[in-house]
Amino acid sequence: MEHSQHSASLARAQSALSREEKLFELADLFRLFADSTRIRILYALSGGELCVGALSTLLSLEQSTVSHQLKVLRESRLVTYRREGKTNLYSLSDEHVSSILDAGFTHLLEEEEH
Amino acid sequence: MEHSQHSASLARAQSALSREEKLFELADLFRLFADSTRIRILYALSGGELCVGALSTLLSLEQSTVSHQLKVLRESRLVTYRREGKTNLYSLSDEHVSSILDAGFTHLLEEEEH
DNA sequence: CTTTCATATGAATATCCGTTCATATTATAT
DNA sequence: ATATAATATGAACGGATATTCATATGAAAG
Roughly what angle, to the nearest 10 degrees, separates helices B63-75 and B36-45? Predict the structure, then answer.
């Protein structure tokens, strides 16, 4: 298994391995965006806070489905919520969520030009 | 109701709708980054082109595993390759891949500050 | 042409995880 | 206190998919 190619590219790749550990966390992060239900929820919330019922109606999803996925997003700190009477108003935790969505959109748009 | 305002609202609604439709494609895109094997491959390739065997050694993965995931990345056009003798040299298709990775890294780094 | 190295592919297994159904919790109103 | 509305949670089922093993393809050397 000799790779005569070595040298520059492999050396760079090996220095990249110093951040190898973070790549597993990164995969975990992207996994949150890898489901259409969650990404639709996140995008809906990018326009402002919404309650569970509104998300459910807006996205034509069962309340239980929305609630389960909100729990996932909550525990990974991508969304937060505040109580208001009987309803819970959810919103994005920070602007990084939107910037990750935007990076993906940019890729899709440029893909279409081919 | 004023015309210009109406068409402006309609335009926003339509663009919002088309974005909503793209969210399913966006989930598909992020799913490619949601696996540690694939993301490690992509990050390794961000340093320059590498052959299958080098990736396999570098990432301590079976050749078959690397090859299968490269096929996924190839078919989704995130990577390309060129033949050189018996080896296939893989590289990232474009710089958007790196920018998506960077957006994720940025989020992780700011997360750590808490 | 056959051997060897590099890579690709197919099939099978195992694990993960999103949805659903049923039920529990929490808050308000009567 | 009970009813009702909003949301959360638990368990189970089903579908997707990453890995492995075995084998096939392809390219170059002897």
Answer: 80
Question: Are B50 and A77 an interchain contact pair (Cβ–Cβ within 8 Å)?
Answer: no
Cβ(A79)–Cβ(A73) under 8 Å?
yes
List the B59 CA – D27 C1' distance (angstroms): 26
Share of chain A above pLDDT 70, in %: 84
Q: What token pair was written down for B67? A: 């090859």
Alpha-carbon distance A98 to nearest alpha carbon in chain B (angstroms): 10
The amino acid present at B6, given as its one-letter code, is: H
The closest CB to that of A34, out of B30, B48, B105, belongs to B30
Share of chain B above pLDDT 70, in %: 85
Q: Per DSSP, what are the bridge partners of residue B79?
A: B92
Contacts of B58 (CB under 8 A, 6+ apart): A10, A13, A14, A17, B44, B50
Ranges of beta strands (E only) in chain B are 50-51, 79-84, 87-92
B82 touches A: beta carbon within 8 Å: no
Asked if residue A94 has pLDDT above 80, the reply is: yes
Closest among B52, B83, B80, B79 to B67, alpha carbons compared: B52
Residue A106 or residue A49, greater confidence:
A49
Q: Which of residues 81-110 of B touch strand D (CB under 7 A)?
A: 83, 85-86
Q: Does CATH place domain B25-113 in 3.90.1480.10?
A: no
pLDDT tens profile B37-76: 999 999 999 999 999 999 999 999 999 999 999 999 999 9
Write down the domain spans for chain B: 25-113
